[in-house]
Design a protein that fits this description.
Blueprint lengths: L1 H41 L7 H34 L4 H31 L2 H81 L14
Helix pairs in contact: 1-2, 1-3, 2-3, 2-4
Amino acid sequence: KRKRLLILCFVTTPVVLLSLIIVIYITLMYVRLQEKMNVLADSNTTIIPNFVLVTLPKIFLALSISLMDLSYRKIAIWLTDFENHRLEDDYNNHYVFKLILLQFVNSFYSLFYTAFYLKDLELLRKQLVTLLLIRQIIDSIREIFLPLGQSRLRQVWLSLRYEQRRLAEGSKLKSESYNSSSPIRTNSAINLSSIQSEIDNNPNYDDSGSKEVDV
C-alpha cells in the first residue's frame, strides 16, 4: 500500500500534470497561430485563399486533440497498470478518473478558453465546426479505410512471404539434388582414375585388358 501511494504521488501525479500542461501549451499555440493567420489573411497578397489561411490553425488544433486523445488513453492504461491495484474495482476507478480528466481537459479546454477568456463567439463557432468535421473524417478513416488498407497490406505481405518461401524451397531442392548426385560422380571419377593409373603403371596389361605372358 505504501508503494502504491508513492507511485501515485511521484509518478501518476507528475505525469498527469505534465499532460495537462501540454494541453494548455497547445491551446496557447493555437490562439497565437490563429491571431497571426488572421493578420496574414487581412494583408494577403499570395495565391492562397484567406479561408485556407484562417482554417489552418483550427485543423492543427483538431488533429492535435485527436492525437492527444489516443496518447492519453495509453498513458492512463500504463499509469493504472503501474500502480498495481489489488482489486479490479480500484483499477477501473483509477483508470476512469485519469481518462475522464485527461480527455475532458484535452477536448474542451480550448473551447472554454475561446468562449470565456477570448469571448469570441464567431471563432468559437468556426472552431466547433472544424473540430466536428475533422473528428468525423478521422473516425471514418479509422473505421473504413484503415482496416481496408491493413487487409491489403497483409495480402501483399503474405504473397511476398509465399514467394520467398517458394524460391527458398526451390533452391533447397536444387542443392539437395546436386548434393545427392555429386558423390556418385566423384566415386566414378575416382574409380576411373585409379584404373587408368593401374593400367599405366603395370606393363603386364595390354590395351585389350589381357595379361602379357613372358616366354
